[in-house]
Amino acid sequence: MVLEGKMVSVVSPVYNEEARVGEFIKRTSATLENVCSSYEIILVDDCSTDGTLGIISEAARKDGKILGIHLVRNSGQHLATLVGLKHARGQIIVTVDSDLQVNPEDIAVLINTLDRYPEYSIISGQRTSRTPGMLRNVGSNIVSMLLNVICSTKLKDMGSTFKAMRKPVLDFALQNEILAQNMPLFVAYTGFKIHEVPIYYHPVGKRSSYGFSSLILILSLAIINFSSGARLLSILLMSGLFLAITGTSLLTGLIIHGMVFKVPLRTNLLLASVIGMLTGWQFIGITLLGFKLETVIRNLKLKNTPVIVKITSEDLNHDC
What is d(CA 149, CA 157) in angstroms, rounded to the nearest whole number? Predict the structure, then answer.
């Protein structure tokens, strides 16, 4: 045993993982048996439409260390994770997806590192193998660089959801209604120390929905104090940035050209540049307001989301 007298909570959102969740539970339980004296596995079923809920129900019935939470409507990965975090009782909390894209055995790596280095508040898994795609990889690197500048960090994998954190960090984040995908940004922003450890990441065959627009969205969240947003707002923000930058550049170029060559400014280009610049800044302002309003709505939905805390075989009948 590595951790004596400390409880570990593993929180995992689950959606339509009938083929994998059983193996995930088995491997996670075996790993935790070897690294801590007390633990719980919290599985949040995000209104799955396959047999996932039944597998979680049976596991919870057989093992008191497994807690199943069933959301009666699909709420998304991050809200599902946050629901699980609110039920976590451990001094160390681990968040990990149940799709086996990271090895459950690596949970021990994160826990041992966190226990070995008390100066760190959160240990984040740095994925050493990523989903292929040149555009996505380039975009990810650019956005990660900007996020590190904004948050004054040096993290290499800002998008990793595989983390181990101490209870005070979680409590502080929950008090501020921080969503799970914003956790590393929030921790960095508030001064808690983060350390990355390399872990192997392997796709399981399903196509990821985490694309370039998602990277821009994450950057948007950092800019507006780590709120939550939607794809449409991220597109609006990108459009606003394009118009503002293009309009400002064109206006600046026209003024410099007129001053250098002493020629009158072309009225049509001058008007177009001013309109583009002003329209762009209006888009940006509307987007930031939209993000804030959308965050309030998400938090209200989360607070009103009905859950079945302890799943039994009687809870298998559900309608999503």
Answer: 14
Q: Which two tokens stand for residue 76?
A: 């998304």
| Spatial distance between the Cα atoms of 53 and 17, rounded to a whole number of angstroms | 9
Average pLDDT over all residues of the chain? 79
Task: List, in sequence order, every residue forming a beta bridge with 40; answer none if it has no partner.
Answer: 9
- Residues 28, 173, single domain; the answer is yes
Those residues with Cβ within 8 angstroms of residue 260's Cβ, 6 or more apart along the chain or in another chain = none
Q: How far, in Å, are 13, 137, 182 from residue 80 at the CA level?
A: 6, 27, 14
Total domains present in the chain: 2
Q: Please indicate, yes or no, whether residues 186 and 80 belong to a single structural domain of this protein.
A: yes
User: Are residue 205 and residue 81 in the same domain, yes or no?
Assistant: yes
Q: Do 28 and 170 have their domain in common?
A: yes
The span from the CA of 84 to the CA of 163, in Å, is 14
For 3-37, what is each residue's pLDDT tens digit? 778 899 999 999 999 999 999 999 999 999 999 98
Rounded CA gap, 157 and 137, in Å?
Answer: 11
* Shared domain check, 77 and 197: yes
Minimal CA–CA distance to 157: which of 178, 134, 137?
Answer: 137
Give the residue among 184, 136, 186 at the shortest CA–CA distance from 160.
184
Prediction pTM value: 0.68
For the four alpha carbons of 102, 47, 11 and 223, in that order, the dihedral sign comes to positive
5 vs 114: CA distance, rounded Å: 15
pLDDT in tens, 133-155: 555 566 566 666 766 665 666 77
Measured between alpha carbons, how far is 162 from 220 in angstroms, rounded to an integer? Answer: 22
User: Looking at residue 200, what DSSP letter applies?
Assistant: -
Q: Answer positive or negative: Cα dihedral of 172, 178, 184, 186.
A: negative
Strands of 307-308's sheet, edge to edge?
194-199, 122-127, 163-166, 92-95, 3-14, 36-45, 66-71, 307-308
Tell me: the pLDDT tens digits for 243-262? Answer: 999 999 998 988 888 888 88
Are 69 and 41 within 8 A, CB to CB? no
Kind of pairing, strands 3-14 and 92-95? parallel
